[in-house]
Write a structure and sequence with these properties.
The protein is of the alpha/beta class. The chain is 37% helix and 20% strand. The chain contains eight helices and eleven strands. α1 links the parallel β1 and β2.
Length: 235
């Protein structure tokens, strides 16, 4: 296996499946099966999920809501998604732990780095909920931060497109896919891989990012095996 410990970043929108909002249980089950397959190969898996399928703080702020309040609502949405994924994984007989940046001891453990690493070493999937616990920071930033803290080998960002393109391939049919690209090239070309805070943090810590299509069955395993799937961003 090319990677031993990974941080998988999923968008909240990915959990919607074909719905307009909320959580599609079939999509959750598919993701749980994909994750179980790599766990069975001895890969240590941590996950950060967005909350955009339920609430997005920035959207709330644009409609007159206080930005800080909106961001906290978005953090709670990520915890709801984390609970849903935890349930799906446990249904697939995968041991999981949900750790949150906002303490809510009745339903999840508080985030403590050493505890998170210990869970990973024991073969449990660790889901990080609540983002960074601070407003104005995205779940992309939370994913990079947690990946650095747990010494992950790579950030694997699952999306609905199969990599990074010169422009949005869903809107521009002439868009060209990159197989490999450097951090500096992404910034020079102004490609929207992650928000700038997350991306800069990843570059500074020499933490590679792979962007791939999570919805294609078997793709996650191919990434772990080092096959040419998606787009690799590194130094």
């Amino acid at each position: 296996m090319k990677y031993k410990r990974i941080l998988l970043k999923l968008s909240g929108e990915a959990l919607m499946g074909d719905r307009n909002y909320g959580i599609d249980p079939n999509r959750l089950a598919d993701y749980a099966d994909e994750i179980k397959n790599i766990i069975n190969k001895g890969i240590e898996v941590a996950i950060v999920i967005g909350g955009g399928n339920i609430f997005r703080g920035l959207a709330g702020a644009s409609n007159g809501m206080d930005r800080v309040q909106g961001d906290y609502m978005g953090m709670l949405a990520t915890i709801i998604n984390g609970l849903a994924l935890q349930s799906a994984l446990e249904e697939a007989d995968v041991q999981t732990r949900l750790l949150t940046s906002i303490e809510m001891k009745q339903i999840a453990e508080p985030f403590i780095k050493r505890r998170a690493v210990r869970h990973l070493e024991k073969g449990r999937v660790v889901i990080f909920g609540g983002g960074t616990g601070n407003p104005y920071f995205t779940t992309d930033t939370a994913a990079v931060l947690r990946a650095i803290e747990i010494n992950a080998d790579v950030i694997i960002k699952g999306t609905r497109v199969d990599g990074i393109y010169t422009s949005d391939p869903e809107k521009d049919k002439s868009a060209v896919k990159f197989e490999n690209i450097t951090f500096k090239e992404v910034m020079n070309k102004d490609l929207k891989v992650m928000d700038m805070t997350a991306f800069t943090l990843s570059e500074e810590n020499d933490l590679p990012i792979i962007v791939f299509d999570m919805n294609k069955k078997g793709n996650l395993m191919k990434v772990i095996l080092g096959e040419n799937v998606g787009t690799l961003v590194n130094s």
